[in-house]
Design a protein that fits this description.
Layout: H1 6-17, H2 32-53, H3 59-114, H4 120-148, H5 154-158, H6 160-175, H7 187-192, H8 194-202, H9 212-218, H10 222-233, H11 238-254, H12 261-266, H13 271-285, H14 289-302, H15 307-325, H16 328-334, H17 337-360, H18 368-383, H19 390-398, H20 404-433, H21 438-455, H22 464-467
Helix pairs in contact: 1-3, 1-6, 1-20, 3-4, 3-8, 3-20, 4-19, 4-20, 6-15, 9-10, 10-11, 13-19, 13-20, 13-21, 14-15, 14-18, 15-18, 17-18, 17-21, 19-20
Pfam family, one: Sugar_tr
Keywords: Glycoprotein, Membrane, Transmembrane, Transmembrane helix, Transport
Subcellular location: Membrane
């Protein structure tokens, strides 16, 4: 069974690897591990509908069902992103984090028992709930991490969200292998195994502090904010705590009521930072990382590896991506955002441009497959210098507390929307353009380089109240 349409190309790999997009190699080839798991789940859906409702689905009706299973995850993500601002302000940053964990667990339970219950509805509901949880998480978790961190470590903590996503990719790759859970009897466990990680990560969460900035600036509870700061910083850091409380005093005294969606979107002073946040999130999806991970299997095969060895090599590429992501906290603590983002964007643009032409001429010379592998690994390595981690937390560094939840929600929504656009357009473009489909990704990285160079102010070591005036004049702002 080939992966020939949007719905098929978007479903299984996103679920198993926590990435949202999978592309087809000219529309004709699919990595075996994905194709086999896809066949299993799609065949199971067809059999369940036949058994429960005595209906034999036609090919077109099965595609409609598959499209529903696929799209409900993206719908949940978009709703979760849009609702993230309201949930974060209503229940707090920590409360939003706990709500996401609950939704993840319920969704995982649906995945675990959908095969036992012979219920496609449970699979669809599980994907909706996981999509909601994912949207809430991407919209609010980086904001929570940056708000509880001291100024010097905000970027270093904010980047851990990207590290978690990258780790999820590797875990998904491992558990989707045929010799692990990629079988007809165990595929539902591959979908739900993430529950183990959720339990491990959420067990100590009830002891986590609430964001002091949320408590003071949003709720006006100064005493509780001070208590949480004491928990976070310790009684030995009284001078640091006093300085942070003074900063919040200034912010609460000068803040404007720009916190609703309409007020944030209509405020001219917030237009440029909002564009930056949305472009960084969307550009991250358009930067080609998911396409690279897909093509890496076929590249490794063309380099002479067997199909099984190519799958393991692809897993190795995922491990490289994860290993490189661990440099993020160190880089964000010591290096400015602007040079990191420009360097990462420029280098990745060059690698993508080179990959496109090497793939086009890959049969011409025997050394080209190896050169392409080097370019793929180079792209993955340098992606984690800026394109991977910075979009997750840049909104928290550009926006003050009041408009921050809306900005983070809009950035998350841009990410989910661009996922959908890629899923709609890329399979057709891949069939039409072949290897040159990587050129738009290269162009995206180039545009991100220019946006960073001319309009992104340096945010490392600065409070958002210092950064906001630098971008208040929109595209007429002078940020350097």
């Amino acid at each position: 069974m080939e992966l020939r349409n949007l719905e098929e190309s978007q479903h299984l790999y996103p679920q198993l690897t926590k990435s949202e997009v999978i592309i087809s190699n000219g529309g004709d080839r699919v990595p075996p591990k994905i194709r086999d798991c896809l066949k299993l789940i799609k065949s199971w859906c067809n059999d369940v509908i036949n058994q429960r409702y005595n209906v034999q689905l036609s090919a077109s009706n099965l595609e409609i069902l598959w499209a529903s299973i696929v799209s409900v995850f993206l719908i949940g993500g978009a709703i979760g992103s849009l609702g993230g601002a309201w949930v974060a302000n209503k229940f707090g940053r920590k409360g939003c984090f706990l709500i996401s964990g609950l939704l993840f667990m319920i969704g995982g339970i649906m995945f675990s028992f959908c095969r036992m219950a012979n219920s496609v509805e449970m699979l669809i509901l599980g994907r909706l709930l996981v999509g909601l949880a994912s949207g809430l998480t991407t919209a609010t978790l980086p904001m929570y991490l940056t708000e509880i961190a001291p100024l010097a470590l905000r970027g270093a903590l904010g980047v851990f969200c990207a590290v978690g996503v990258t780790g999820g990719v590797v875990v998904g790759q491992v558990f989707s292998l045929r010799n692990s859970f990629g079988t007809s009897d165990l595929w539902h466990y591959a979908l739900s195994f993430y529950m183990v990680l959720v339990v491990i990560c959420y067990l100590p969460s009830f002891y986590f502090p609430e964001s002091p900035k949320y408590l003071y600036i949003v709720l006006g509870d100064r005493e509780r904010a001070l208590r949480e700061l004491l928990r976070l910083r310790g009684t030995d850091a009284l001078l640091l705590i006093q300085h942070e409380m003074e900063e919040m005093d200034m912010e609460i005294n000068t803040k404007i009521a720009t916190s609703s969606f309409f007020s944030v979107l209509s405020d001219p002073a917030l237009m440029l930072p909002l564009i930056i946040v949305c472009c960084f999130h969307g550009g991250q999806q358009f930067s080609g990382i998911n396409a690279i991970f897909y093509y890496s299997v076929s590249i490794f095969e063309k380099a002479g590896l067997s199909t099984t060895d190519a799958e393991w090599a692809n897993l190795g590429a995922g491990c490289l991506n994860l290993a490189t992501s661990f440099f993020g906290p160190v880089l964000m603590a010591k290096v400015n955002r602007r040079p990191l983002m420009m360097f990462s964007s420029a280098v990745c643009a060059c690698f993508l441009f080179t990959i496109a032409f090497i793939l086009y001429y890959i049969e011409a010379f025997s050394w080209l497959p190896m050169a392409c592998i080097v370019c793929v690994m180079g792209y993955i390595f340098f992606y984690q210098f800026g394109l991977g981690p910075i979009p997750y937390f840049i909104g928290a560094e550009l926006f003050e507390v009041a408009p921050r939840p809306v900005a983070m929600s809009m950035g998350s929504l841009a990410s989910w929307s661009c996922n959908f656009v890629i899923g709609m357009a890329f399979p057709s473009l891949s069939r039409a353009w072949g290897a040159f489909v990587f050129l738009p990704f290269s162009l995206t990285c180039t545009l991100l380089f220019l946006l960073t160079k001319f309009y992104l102010p340096e945010t490392r070591g600065r409070d958002p109240s210092e950064v906001a005036p630098l971008v208040a004049k929109g595209f007429r702002s002078k940020v350097t």
